[in-house]
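assembly run, all chains below
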Amino acid sequence: MSIGALEAQGREVREAATALGQASDEARRAVLLHVADRLEESSDELLAINADDVVAYDEPGAGVDRLTLTSARVNAMADALREIANHPDPLFEVVDQSVRPNGLRIERLRVPLGVIGVVYENRPNVTSDVAGLCVRSGNAAYLRGSSTAFATNQFIVSLWHEALEKEGLPAAGVSLVQDSSHETAAAFMQLTDVLDCLIPRGGPSLIAAMREHARVPYVLDGDGNCHVFVDASADLDNAVAIVRNAKTSRPGVCNAAETVLVHRMIAADFLPALSAAMPEVELRGDDATRQYLPNATPASEEDYQREFLDLILAVKVVDSLDEAIAHVARYGTGHSEAILTTDQANAEAWVKRVDAAAVVVNASTRFVDGGELGLGGEVGISTQKLHARGPMGLRELTCLKWVVRGEGQIR
Amino acid sequence: MSIGALEAQGREVREAATALGQASDEARRAVLLHVADRLEESSDELLAINADDVVAYDEPGAGVDRLTLTSARVNAMADALREIANHPDPLFEVVDQSVRPNGLRIERLRVPLGVIGVVYENRPNVTSDVAGLCVRSGNAAYLRGSSTAFATNQFIVSLWHEALEKEGLPAAGVSLVQDSSHETAAAFMQLTDVLDCLIPRGGPSLIAAMREHARVPYVLDGDGNCHVFVDASADLDNAVAIVRNAKTSRPGVCNAAETVLVHRMIAADFLPALSAAMPEVELRGDDATRQYLPNATPASEEDYQREFLDLILAVKVVDSLDEAIAHVARYGTGHSEAILTTDQANAEAWVKRVDAAAVVVNASTRFVDGGELGLGGEVGISTQKLHARGPMGLRELTCLKWVVRGEGQIR
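ok done. output:
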């Protein structure tokens, strides 16, 4: 695909976005429900195409699992679309209204962003999930998936084309970039006349490429170096259960805990109980931690900086709430930060003073997720502050347009 | 100023932002009111310093007027700060609340963005206005003004330092980059560990530099190629008064009208009346326009594309609402787009279908301004869709933090 072909496709996506932004709630819902049905009906065909992509895949690591579809995963994709379809329409809500002294009536109206570009890696379910969130919110989805999933993605997108056309909407409302070269990747990130918002879903090299090449506004789905602070007054059993859940329920995701900070007053009770409750997890602690857990690995500076995304947890004993907040300010990535405490003042200080997309009190960091927070799905989790912070659902794919109504006012 | 010195200053600004984000409503207000008083008290000194900057200024064009302060302008700066000070506190509002089926209590809390970077040109009032909006909303202001205004800006910033320290807040909460070389400009736009949001206020070359160099999230204060569509049913006298106001009340600003689109049914009445009402404006029209206004200059394609920012208005006769909307979609910059009509259905079609930061019905485009819309001031007018669209006031300098409160929930 040449740059010229990319730009020509982009113009079609742009036009389709205008039609989607005018489409009725009913038509947008119907598209999602149709694709959900068709995914299930054509599951065998989809799995066969995906099997070819999997056979051709020759990179080591967890990539092959992310690439592979199963019947259960196809059904989960369909169910996710039904959930998004049944979520209330995010469009055309009047967010606030006022009348100015000169009689002008002012309101802000919720409208689609337009064209959402998403750059992502292996997982084919992203193709369907993102298309669903975009179409439901009246946006066009312009997708640049991985070359390794190309045939799978192409088939999924063909179901979207069918469903859009069935509702009289342009097929280009869900479009897939037709190659995955580095050249088109950079060109894609520079389609300033096409993309209203670009969302990267991937690792550090994708984020670096975005910062280098992107010329369109973007929202970063960044790393989650998430902390749990176990305060002196924490309920011991709750604290052990929460840290265990935050670390082990799904270690490879961005809302998993990577470091536990333990108040010195509770360390002698908490640390041995935690270690006993999750023997499968390697603990890496500072000197104070290792007084209570002599078998823990010594923690390096780097251990406090990184996302392990694995069954490894960094541990640090702190003297105070202030020290815990300072540690999070230094090492945190602004994703999800939890305090476990029975002291209401400390809980509120944490909520107010910790600078992160989500602050959590007495619960697992794993709840910071679009589905769990009631958004009906998510296109990513923003760790920046502009536009959207935390999970991005349907509402985060909209913007507010000013409407000014007068009767001849001049200034 | 070396890049290292810039980074060191940046770290101080970052720390100051933390303190400002925790400062009370009362302290933040007091800082603004103190600066307002001190601006007036030290007006003579400020005007003398500014006079030196003006003497040293040797570029042609309107720059010298923008650079020059007068007593009236200093008083206006002080009054603007008092207005922002008296605007309600934008912080710590709970925007929405819900309880999940598992008992988690979810809310979103309005908090400051952190450090706002602003790159701007001559006008020294921007120094004070931006600092006022940032401090009022609990943010630090990191300012890169023009070298031509350096001494003036430095003096204004010194008043902010005095006021911040008087309230026990760090002086670095309002900081000025100490040189204006291109090298530090590019480095400033790449301070990813310091800046939460970067706002350029300037012309096309600054926007191009932002797209090229910026590595931090930014909101573009873009061009305004604004249209007024005079529909067939428009009230003739109102329409003439509004177009005249939109074009001539301040031709050099971004919310001034640049093109008037006239429905063919009303053209024979409207165009001669408009021409008679604003003889000082050069009209540039298409062939149909020139049937009614034989003395109008023929309009080129470029005339429909550009911001004149002058007493020149492009004119085009259109056959329908659809043609007007299509013209705006093609040539508009997404700023402010007005329809003048007595047909309610056409007004609502315009509101829904025109894609712009502000759509205006039966009023002048000149009302699209933070002060006029009740924001108490503005740091710029965004023509992009992410984060803020249209005038950016105090609320647009905040973001929403998720707060999740539980009693031991795990996932």
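The first strand of chain B starts at residue 94 and ends at 99.

Residues 226-371 of chain B form a domain with the Aldehyde Dehydrogenase; Chain A, domain 2 fold (CATH 3.40.309.10).

not gonna interpret more than that til we talk
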